[in-house]
Amino acid sequence: MVAMAQATEEVSYLEAISQALDEEMARDERVFLMGEDVGTYGGAFKITEGFLQKYGEWRVLDTPLAESGFVGAAIGAAMMGLRPVVEMQFADFISCAFDQITEVAAKNHYRWGAAVPMVIRAPFGGGVHGGPFHSECPEGWFFHSPGLKLVAPSTPYDAKGLLKAAIRDPNPVIYFEHKFLYRRIKSALPKEDFVVPLGKADVKRVGNDISVITYGAMVHLALEAAQALTKEGIDLEVVDLRTLIPLDKETIYSSVRKTSKVILLHEDNKTGGIGAEIAALLAEDCFDCLDGPIVRIAPPDTPVPFSPPLEEFFLPKTSDIVSAARKLAAY
Amino acid sequence: MDVADIAKEIKRDDMLQMHHYLRLTRALEERITALYRQGRIVGGVYTSHGMEAIAVGYASALERDDVIAPYHRDMGAFLIRGFTTGEILAQYLGKRTGPTKGKDGNVHMGDLRRGVFGFVSHLADNLPVAAGAALAFKIRGESRVVFTGTGDGGSSRGDFHEAMNFAAVRKLPVVFFCTNNQYAYSTPLRLQMAISNVVDRAKAYGMPGEIVDGNDVAAVYLAAKRAIAIAREGEGPTFLEFKTMRMHGHSEHDPAKYVPRELLEDWKKKDPILKAERLLRELGYAEESYFQRVAERVKNEVETGVEFAEQSPLPEGPEMLEGVFADGADSY
Ligand SMILES: Cc1ncc(C[n+]2csc(CCOP(=O)(O)OP(=O)(O)O)c2C)c(N)n1
């Protein structure tokens, strides 16, 4: 983890996001927020609580319930020089705005040179019993669409630093914030302004035997598994991608070159997921250095189910990582 | 509206300039159609033949700082915004000198500096984007206006409705229009919607609407002026339904056999250019010899463009790799 000068008291992942928004709005008057219930109510998760009073109704806009409409509006405002940050109430509803994101925001710069500097915050992921429409990990839909940047932080530090970087980036960025982490993960943050640059992975735990490549809430599972495996003398390296696009191939490759074994772990469905792409990249570029099969741990190809035992069965568990690591270590 | 009223409301120079752009649009698109038939333009070609008065009328009513998010048959708007015939033809021919450097074709071009948003195939996608540009103007307190629209077909899309609703709720300075040219590709209006006037859709959003003769450039211009004035005053969006007819097929490869010939014969009599010329004669602003000079002038303008486009280089294959992302952190 990153060394921190002048650490303040601990803040949650959720507070870190809120701080990033507040500081960016104070720093740059072009930054404004829009989304459902982000104003008076402060957002479904209360990330923008108090913002309306502080910044007024033209910088914190409650929108009609129309994702395509307000994402489109953010694109237009971005092209006219503003810096919209759009909140999807839940990442799942981003499907309603899919067309605006992939066809308009992602392609404008390529087609006719118009930059679209905007951020879409998408609270994603399971573990909160949200059922099939409130637990999705939709990053795979966008991973395949050139022109977008995708971010998925796992810690308060990264959440804050990456959101600031996303707001300052001249491209459309989808910022996947994990709902499960909102109030569960805390850490101290530096007082001064900092960004975490887009496109840089972070080795969250240095290890020698097996690389676990992951992002989002799964980073914490991987760290738990690593902890559990120390007793057995299996030393996991945990690589947190942090940014999915641009993908930090260098960090992935150098970790795998060191350990020669790899587990790809994510919460999005297995087929066509980010792990599949990284597996293909490793097969293309790092085949010679692999000492075992590439292992993928991801949920099965079903929607995210509601009932606790079903959801638990669906989500990857620490024990899945532990047993996969044992097998791979013995390989 | 009678001629004396028009003479009062539209300056002579403006009328003559609109006539010039009507002629230029027609000449350019006829040339594009010919190049397409010769196989020199690949891809789809969608023209505004018979509908030129709409883009020419509304784009003439806007100020320089206003923004246009055009519909796919708005060639006149590009010309009025200063896209040269050469650039436009280079775009159609996939040349590096076109506004998209070969990345996109035909009317899918745009330029922020000239206040024209690139057209997106997904019909009505540009309407929320236009509302967003208007939102930016409103947030910054600028008196700029956005003009955007789609066809009768596009008005069935959710994005059309989402944009209208959002703009109405926030009283954004945007004008929406629909070119009701009776067909969406081969689908007639009666299979598109269960109402006969598209303008009725605006009522649901509490937005004022107006039906306008889309073949009458003066009527389009004046209706646009009214709607723009409302938007600039901070009174919010207006919806304009331009009644017209698509005189060519959906694209130039489509013979449009599904359109009854008598209908086309009827609309031919309402040709917007002939209509404008009749008006100019009645106003005493111009006569036959003037029209001939304009025809000559636009022909030259088009031929100069053809020459420029044909002499322009094609892009090299690897140039397709450029421009996916904007760089230069935060410089936009
Ligand atoms: C969302 C979407 N669906 C389908 C198409 C394919 N398409 C292109 S033009 C067109 C008809 C458009 O009709 P209308 O909006 O009335 O405009 P017109 O071409 O008649 O001027 C269709 C179906 C498209 N471009 N976008």
How would you portray this structure in words?
The complex is a heterodimer of chains A (331) and B (332). Chain A is built from eleven helices and 14 strands. Chain A has 331 residues and is an alpha/beta fold. A seven-stranded mixed sheet of chain A has the order 3-2-4-5-7-6-12, sandwiched between helices. Chain A has a five-stranded mixed sheet with strand order 9-11-10-13-14, sandwiched between helices. Chain A has a two-stranded antiparallel sheet with strand order 1-8. In chain A, helix 1 runs parallel beside helix 6 and helix 7 (218-230) crosses helix 11. The longest helix of chain A has 15 residues, at 13-27. Chain A is globular, with a radius of gyration of 19 Å. The two termini of chain A are 30 Å apart. The model of chain A has no long low-confidence stretch (mean pLDDT 96). Chain B is of the alpha/beta class. Chain B contains 13 helices and seven strands. Chain B has a five-stranded parallel sheet, with helices on both faces. Chain B has a two-stranded antiparallel sheet with strand order 4-5. In chain B, helix 2 packs across helix 13 and helix 6 runs parallel beside helix 7 (158-169). The radius of gyration of chain B is 19 Å and the shape is globular. The model of chain B has no long low-confidence stretch (mean pLDDT 96). Chains A and B meet through helix 3 and helix 4 of A and helix 6 and helix 7 of B. The complex binds thiamine diphosphate.
Report a brief summary of the structure:
The complex is a heterodimer of chains A (about 325) and B (about 325). By secondary structure, chain A is of the alpha/beta class.
